[in-house]
């Protein structure tokens, strides 16, 4: 599987791909299920002419060219197994399929002993450990459902719950001594225990803080090469809404490995210099490869790099598709600046 981490279709396929690996990656099968991150292995993806994500290719030992799985609308485990069976002439079977968590109801997952470890093994998870008879748990239940529902479109955090009266081994693993216990788990490991107020607003604010604790900040940069200050805001998923809520914001969505982005970078800096004294215009960078920004880039429909959008008071009003030279970029922004905003 050739993929990019922020691609929604890739994210949806990952659990199925992992199951396929568990069924297939056995010595007697002599099959390897693998994945290649095209944001870090660019040359390899270019070599195999990968332009869409995910791209699935089957390679036989000793052959440099692979055959592409064409039925991209059907990425079910059954169909992938059938395709492999056709390619290798051996029936893999589906007896070893490991149960996945049931589909979330309004964004909330109910985990069990069979599904918990695998589900929390990667990514960010906010988990409620509870007992049905617990009064505080009963009061929290509708709020927890509201939290899950409000974050149901967020691809980077899972809101879940597990009944400790039914699945004691999991709760014992995390040393749960009272109910409800709310834990923040990253890549299978407990990172923090939530001890704040149990309102929807407080729980959502905590989730945003945990997702953005390392990357959520606005940076004012300085060009040390010529000692000329310029203002380019580096925004992330957590700070984007507030960073563009006033005035004109011209935003570059980019990836550090993108050649076109690299060529645009010094011009974008110069554009920032031109608007340094204009408080009503922000020139902005968003790195779509950062975990905290991938969901934002999906929401803003960024499907290539660089993508340049102009916003007014937080609302997207235009996409720039013109020449990427300083004069044309500057003119584009000025055409959207109100007369009293002009430099």
From TrEMBL:
It holds the Pfam family Thioredoxin. CDD domains: PDI_a_ERp46. The keyword Repeat applies. Transmembrane segments: none annotated. Keywords: Redox-active center, Repeat, Signal. Residues 1-85, 86-206, 209-338 form the Thioredoxin domain. GO terms for molecular function: protein disulfide isomerase activity. GO terms for biological process: protein folding. Gene3D superfamilies: Glutaredoxin (3.40.30.10). GO terms for cellular component: endoplasmic reticulum. Signal peptide: none annotated. PANTHER family: PROTEIN DISULFIDE-ISOMERASE C17H9.14C-RELATED, THIOREDOXIN DOMAIN-CONTAINING PROTEIN 5. Belongs to the protein disulfide isomerase family. This is Thioredoxin domain-containing protein 5. It comes from Habropoda laboriosa.
């Amino acid at each position: 599987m050739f993929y990019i981490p922020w691609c929604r279709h890739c994210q949806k396929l990952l659990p199925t791909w992992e199951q396929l690996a568990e069924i297939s990656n056995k010595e007697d099968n002599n099959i390897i299920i693998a994945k290649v991150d095209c944001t870090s292995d660019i040359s390899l993806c270019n070599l195999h002419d990968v332009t869409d994500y995910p791209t699935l290719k089957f390679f036989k030992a000793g052959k440099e060219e692979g055959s592409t799985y064409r039925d991209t609308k059907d990425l079910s485990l059954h169909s992938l197994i059938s395709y492999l069976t056709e390619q290798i002439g051996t029936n893999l079977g589906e007896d070893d399929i490991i149960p996945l968590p049931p589909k979330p109801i309004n964004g909330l997952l109910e985990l069990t002993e069979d599904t918990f470890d695998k589900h929390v093994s990667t990514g960010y998870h906010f988990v409620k450990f509870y007992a049905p008879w617990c009064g505080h748990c009963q009061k929290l239940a509708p709020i927890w459902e509201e939290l899950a529902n409000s974050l149901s479109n967020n691809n980077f955090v899972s809101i879940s719950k597990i009944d400790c009266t039914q699945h004691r081994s999991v709760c014992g693993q995390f040393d749960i001594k009272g109910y409800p216990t709310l834990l923040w788990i990253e890549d299978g490991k407990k990172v923090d225990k939530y001890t704040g107020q149990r309102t929807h607003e407080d729980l959502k604010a905590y989730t945003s803080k945990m997702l953005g604790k390392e990357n959520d900040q606005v940076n004012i940069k300085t060009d040390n090469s010529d000692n000329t200050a310029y203002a380019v805001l580096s925004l992330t998923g957590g700070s984007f809404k507030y960073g563009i809520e006033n005035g004109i914001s011209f935003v570059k969505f980019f990836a550090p490995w993108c050649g076109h982005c690299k060529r645009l970078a010094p011009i974008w800096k110069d554009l920032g210099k031109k608007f340094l004294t204009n408080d009503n215009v922000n020139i902005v960078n968003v790195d779509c490869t950062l975990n905290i920004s991938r969901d934002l880039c999906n929401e803003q429909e960024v499907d290539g790099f660089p993508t340049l959008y102009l916003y007014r008071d937080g609302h997207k009003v235009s996409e720039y598709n013109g020449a990427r030279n300083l004069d044309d970029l500057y003119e584009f922004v000025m055409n959207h600046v109100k007369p009293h905003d002009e430099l």
